[in-house]
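Practice problem: predict the structure.
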Amino acid sequence: MTDTTLAPPTRRTRPFALVLAAASLPMFMATLDNLVMTNALPVLHREMGASVEELQWFVNAYTLAFAGAILIASALGDRFGRRTFFVIGIAVFGAGSVLAALSSDPGQLIAARAVQGLGAAAVMPLSLALLSGAVAPARRALAIGIWGGVSGLGVAVGPLVGGAIMEGWDWQAIFWINVPVAIVAIPLAMVVLNNDFGARARIDVPGALLAAAGVLALVHAIVRGNDDGWDSVGVVAEILLGAVLVAAFLVWQARAKAPLVPLRLFRDRSFSITNIVGFAFSFGTFGAVFILIQYLQVVQGSSPFEAALQTTPWTLAPMVVAPIAGILAPRVGTRILLVLGLALQGVALTWIAAVMSVDLDYPVLIAPFVMAGVGMALVFAPSATALLATLGLIDHAKASGVNSTVRELGVALGTAVMTAIFVSAGGELLPDLYVDAARPAVFTGAAVLFAATVVALWLPSGRATTAAGDEATPGVDASQPATAGAEASVSSAAQPADAAAASPGVGAEPELAGRPLGGS
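Answer:
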């Protein structure tokens, strides 16, 4: 069957490196801001008089807005153009950065961080979808590997960049640096990236409202639990409300004609387990990082920049290891890399929690920091490969949006839960009251990572298959070629004809049905 609307010549082609830069630069900016201000938290505590609860909201306002808006941003990108909303996201993020830099009290900064999160919600999932659709299948594993490495780098060097800026300037400069990046990224994306479309369906506004309200209620209840009491009427009612709203969201998604989260995606084992692992990884790792970064300053007496330098054995490892892991994933399999990475991260946090003390010598932390960095790197890029392994291009934006939402919820809940553990154990931002309360929080993060390691064992092996006369499909389990192919074909066949036609790069060739297609 021939369809001229799907002909490859209608798609612009650009050099591989330019496509990578256009998709990855804004994503790096957005991921950097997950943790860029962690080194500034003690300073904000002093200069703004922010409480411990307000400090965690400086982080959670960003992650919750991010998580709450990702699904609808992905749907808007599918309907009106992924590049269009990608660029809008960059602009909103830049505006939020300006507002954050101009903030003069905790309330203003929390609101500005929420605006940043709304912008990042359009950047993160659409960057992966645009990249995946812009490169040829033969180079997609390499592109996703590098994208994963850049994503991991953004998260990992956030504390280092924040510390360096804090040393030479003031905390406002943490946000001003985003402005020139946004100014460069917008025209670059407009010139280099194709304006791909997904299924042009009606936007699921009720679903978006149910998901955002449910998540906000749950996290807010956890944050206020220590102050108001876990058995207080307000906290219990908010937890129940959040659970009901999330359940209502799932029921609605099962019945909606154009759901934000197509529940059929969860029939794919690799997709489902990757999301479980992503949530647990973000919960355990970044909740612990929130506690550990402040430990280096509050207890060890390091300046923001010194604390950032001390974490470089952790933060620099993803720069080297993540791109390599992304390239190796189709060859050795995503499962072995994810299991090894999660286990290393869990062991590292256990080690750190066990040796934490008021008078700890810094060199003792170097080995577990290196282990944590390698573990983090082994999770980032293979996760992106496993997520999209058997999904068609038309599903990439929604799939990436779901995964980004799950991971950001992990960051928000991990930070909230570990802060709650810290506060309930009598922790304060004072040297003699920090360590004993921080230790159980970090041990909790390690336990969650060990649980994720066990779950990751259920992933398909994730090795690429190569049939005669056919190219390898990154991430498809070699031990289950028939099943993987069948599931992918069903996924593709389930798409409406008009949705397929609206998605440039999704070909009509039957032997390619279900693959994440595209071409450069």
